Amino acid sequence: MLTDFYGNHLTTSTGLARDSYDIGLRAFLSANYGAEEAFSQAIEADPNFALGYMALVRAFMSSGKLANAKAALRNAKNLLDGLTSREKSHFLCCELILSGEAKKARVAVQNHVSEWPRDVMIAQMSTSVFGLIGFSGEAGRENDLLEYTAKLLPQYGDDWWMMSMHAISLCETGQTLKSMQLMEKALKLNPRNANAAHFFAHILYEENEVLAGREYLNAWMPTYDRRSLLHGHLSWHQALWALHDGDETSMWKLVDSSVSQEKGSSLPINALTDTASIYYRAELAGYNVSNERWHKLSEYAAQNFPKMGQSFADIHAALAHAMAGNEEYLNKLIDGNSGFAGDIVPAVAKAWKAISEKKWDKAREELKTASSEFERFGGSRAQRDLLEFTYVNVLLRIDKKEIARKTLLERRPVFYDTVPILAMSG
Ligand SMILES: [Fe+2]
Fold first, then answer.
1. Distance 418 CA to ligand 1 centre (A)
2. CA of 206 to the centre of ligand 1 (A)
3. Of the N and C termini of the chain, which has fewer Cβ atoms inside 10 Å?
4. Could you tell me the distance, in angstroms and rounded to a whole number, from the CA of residue 259 to the centre of ligand 1?
5. Do 308 and 203 fall into the same domain?
């Protein structure tokens, strides 16, 4: 009986298929380029290797190739006879996540890992801030994620992937010291795990360690393949630190070469959210962002997210549409109510509209309503600082400097003295 790296039985008797599968697992779990190729080789070695097709589904999904993912799922479906019950349940989770049935998928994943906690390709679906829990739209989802990874952690021993995943759960619930200790262990075991490098950057961000953060990623990034999943997003982290450091030249260089939708290699969700975020945070810092930039981004958002539904993308699309003056697109998000946090997207969309028209009182009203629920939009704390800092800036614009300072102190104390908002220093 052949097993994968994590000890799960695989219905194949071809050693090369198993070996290629394990290579793919390592690439997939470490967010390095090559998973798709390795899983394809596994299938080439054994065309009846159902798990190989299911892994391909996930690899295609993470590179945005949904038609390929659907085709791989169909191939897997034809091979279900003779599979173990774990593999059949594995298939169900893949099918649900690919069909966008996020709630059902989350339940299926939970049931699956209760029985087979080390089936890593399934366990992975609910981890990190962009997973099924991260994008659940539920209040308290950061704690839910912590609970989820805490339960899995003891099942994995000293595993670099699991450690890094629990470490980000700790980081995003404010436990940065514990997170740092675990992340260092994870990185020692696999220094080229881009998820761990990414989460390490989050810890440094949460500690406002701007110089250390810049140095860390400057050293780590040059050997990271541009085609890999996190290249654009890690470049966003670098650009953000350049911004916090007052280094506008480096910031634009990073944005234009690797973050933005024009030249970066990110998936649309990252290209849109990271670009919108850095543009507006640059504006908050007092840098000029041209109309042309906003306009191009707004068109990109409309093209890639034509329907409301991915709330984290939607609040960033609304920002781009508002700044570009694309009312038709913006109104869809103001009037709609779909997606995991679709009930509160309109408040933020209305706030962006008010901000673009310099109606600061109106913007304050809308943001105040949504501010107790920002967590529900998903994303990391670093990403949600777009909303936090915008809220503070709006308060400054209506001459509520004391309230602005108090708000910052209560919500993001680590940035109390150094927040890159021009109006704060005025
Ligand atoms: Fe990040």
1. 20
2. 11
3. N
4. 12
5. no
Specify whether 322 is located in the same domain as 413: yes
Query: Which residues fall within 8 angstroms of residue 239, CB to CB, at 6 or more apart?
Result: 250, 251, 254, 255, 259, 278
> Both tokens of residue 290?
């041209």
Same domain, 66 and 172: no
**According to the model, what pLDDT value does residue 312 have?**
97
In degrees rounded to 5, what are phi and psi of residue 262?
Answer: -80, -45
CA of 191 to the centre of ligand 1 (A): 17
- For residue 270, the CA-to-ligand 1 centroid distance in Å is 10
Closest CA to 360 of 400, 387, 395, 405: 395
* Same domain for 161 and 29: no
User: What's the pLDDT tens digit per position in 224-263?
Assistant: 999 999 999 999 999 999 999 999 999 999 999 999 998 8
Residue 213 is assigned to a structural domain of this protein = no
Nearest to 159 by CA among 182, 143, 134: 182
| Contact call for residues 313 and 346 (beta carbons, < 8 A) | no
pLDDT, tens only, 328-366? 999 999 999 999 999 999 999 999 999 999 999 999 999
Same domain membership, residue 27 and residue 161: no
What is the extent of the structural domain holding 186? Answer: 138-207
